[in-house]
Amino acid sequence: MAFYLAVAAFNDNALTIVDATNPASPAFIGSIAGAGPPNFLGAATLVQIVTHYAYVTAFADNSLTIIDIADPTAPVFVGHIAGAGAPNFLGGATGFHVIGHYAYVAAFTDNSLTIIDITNKAAPAFVANIAGIGAPNFLGGPYCVRINGNQAYVTTHLDNSLTIIDITNPAAPVFLSNIAGAGAPNFLDTPAEVNIDGNTAYVAAINDNSLSIFNITNPAAPVFLSNIAGAGAPNFLGGATAVKILGNYAYVGAIADNSLSIFDITNPAAPIFVGHIAGAGAPNFLNMPTGVLPCVNHVYVGAQGDNSLTAIDVTNPAIPAFAGHLAGIGAPNFLGGASNSFYFTYTPPTPTPPVYPKPSVQTLPATGVT
Questions:
Q1: Which of 88, 202, 233, 358 has its CA 20 to 30 A from that of 102?
Q2: Separation between Cα atoms, residue 27 and residue 4, nearest integer Å
Q3: 11 touches 307 (CB < 8 A)
Q4: Is 206 helix (H, G, I), strand (E, B) or coil?
Q5: Closest CA to 259 of 283, 284, 282
Q6: Of 286, 249, 255, 279, which Cα lies nearest the Cα of 267?
Q7: Total Cβ atoms within 10 A of residue 201
Q8: From CA 47, how far away is CA 328, in angstroms rounded?
Q9: SS3 of residue 141 by DSSP
């Protein structure tokens, strides 16, 4: 069984499939590319895999695009929905989260959380949206969406807010609450990625150079819990953009520090710096790490400035080490502006053995000889 990554390549307007079975030597498998028709992947931003479909937001195409990756070597366009403003409100489609029959999309330039019905992959359909900078909805420049229960947690660049929307009825989303503010006390200046673990939300805040942590036990009243911050030593969180949680660790991509930084979050009220690895270009290829994906003993980083998918060995989180990478704008690797990725496993189909006709049984004519 192979371990594959689907990568959104912003500058190549591409969805690229990489075989990462061997982290020391990731290999190009296939891609599909092109802004506008027929593939609608202009400035591909984020990818999520569900079964054998890849869902991709395309910022420049204002689109949610669906690709069939049943054969990873030859991805095929299936359908899309697009358009800034009415009727689809997908202007600057950025982050999203697919749950069940719906995709919840952060439309950055439409200041909107937009809900799309994806039941029919060939013809996804607008369901509803909720929008607006500042009060009452605090959705100015939404960047990332995570669904947890009946709530959508949305980071908003322009409102410096973690905004919570009630999606109990996807056809009628309702503002529930928010927590906001640059610097103290909430450290949410230009919040980027949010991830949720249990009753805790972890937010990477770009301009606060911070990993900010919130208690969301009561989604109607989120509470600041703690943060850890600072560009350069000792925390290497300059331009914190991407955050993923695995076990007791938070893995943060910091684009100003060109760093993958690791924090022990065993106690979310007191995160502790554990280790980091940094540097644009050789030897670590971590220029602008806009996407991080922890998988067992490795973290895969989309380094947008290095046009690279970079594998970091985190077997010892205190001493993360470069393992391997695959890079390059355009052919042959199509990783220009590599950002976010999503993993999936793939078992090549077993060839069906040929079926040969059974030999016919011939009855010889009687000779009369005894």
A1: 202
A2: 9
A3: yes
A4: coil
A5: 284
A6: 249
A7: 25
A8: 19
A9: coil
Distance between CA 161 and CA 3 in Å, rounded?
36
DSSP 12: T
- Cα 261 from Cα 275, distance rounded (Å): 6
How is residue 156 written in tokens? 């908003």
Q: What is the pLDDT along the chain (370 residues), one digit of tens a residue?
A: 689 999 999 999 999 999 999 999 999 999 999 999 999 999 999 999 999 999 999 999 999 999 999 999 999 999 999 999 999 999 999 999 999 999 999 999 999 999 999 999 999 999 999 999 999 999 999 999 999 999 999 999 999 999 999 999 999 999 999 999 999 999 999 999 999 999 999 999 999 999 999 999 999 999 999 999 999 999 999 999 999 999 999 999 999 999 999 999 999 999 999 999 999 999 999 999 999 999 989 999 999 999 999 999 999 999 999 999 999 999 999 999 999 888 887 766 666 566 556 555 444 444 444 3
Q: What is the pTM of this model?
A: 0.92
Read out DSSP for 223-257? EEEEEEE-SSTTT--TTEEEEEEETTEEEEEETTT
- Looking up tokens 């009855």, which residue turns up? 363
Count the neighbouring beta carbons within 10 Å of the beta carbon of residue 233: 9
Tokens of 313: 């060995």
Q: Report CA torsion sign: 259, 343, 7, 50.
A: negative
User: What are the tokens at 352?
Assistant: 């069906």
